[in-house]
Amino acid sequence: MGKKSSARSSGRPNPKSNQESSPMTSALNEDGDAPPFDLAVSRCPQTAERHQALDTDSVISKPAIARANLAVTTSAPDGSPESKTPEIKDYTVLQQHVLFWDRDGDGEIYPWDTYIGFRDLGFSVLFSLFSMMNINSTLSYPTRLAVSWWPDPWFRIYVKGIPKAKHGSDTGVYDREGRFVPQLFEDMFSKWDVHGSGSLSAGELWNMIRANRLAADPFGWGAAFLEWGTTWLMTQKDGRVSKEDLRQTYDGTIFWKIKEAREQGKGWNKGFGLRDFVDLTRRQSKAHVM
Hints:
InterPro entries: Caleosin-related (IPR007736), EF-hand-dom_pair (IPR011992)
Strand order of the largest sheet: 1-2
Family: Belongs to the caleosin family.
Oligomer: single chain
Pfam families: Caleosin
Largest sheet: 2 strands, antiparallel
Protein name: Caleosin-domain-containing protein
Strand content: under 5%
GO molecular function: calcium ion binding; monooxygenase activity
Distance between the termini: 79 Å
Number of helices: 11
């Protein structure tokens, strides 16, 4: 008997003689050079549809290495100045994200702290109550494990244990210790900002949420939807959330800016509230009548 082909004997599928070339040879960095390896394969179309950010290292040194206390991007390679202050620099980026709700700095976020924080951001009483009950009831015990095995009777969230509150089906921009991974943040826009505008629409965010879903993770699906939905409601302008606003959401600096703008009477000129919804409904009704 003749020898079988090496492809058959190894149990691998026998490629067609007219097999297409690598679908990602067109993915070039800003110098016009393709990397010396495949970034996508034809058997998994998503790898060709969702491009990685290839030139992050031209602005950020070692972008795949997580930053402990700085949210750095190609448009803000030094992060937020606030993150370098003595009061903040010893907190991870994920901890910085929640410090807005720890007003007294004791490392504990009570349910009423959560409620007050959302009210300061301009959310309604009902939305703030919902956020308080949802966030503190689900995140209290995981963060409590940093100090005790016993559940907390006050449903406090512990800043020290906030990495334990990280859920599945997320972007991975926060690593398991709460540090910030610049490459994965840049990948968000490379993959989902289809128009290259430096911002994400509600539809693009929805596509990202769907793509990030992991099997058997309903809690992660719901958490991602609520987090990104709230972010869009808080920071959108003309239907899109800018890259810089998202960066500042990750390290929490945008929360303080919104609070300050509202307290100074200037108001926050972004976001989407009940009044915007009513105005949108009226405009659509008029357009339908015409």
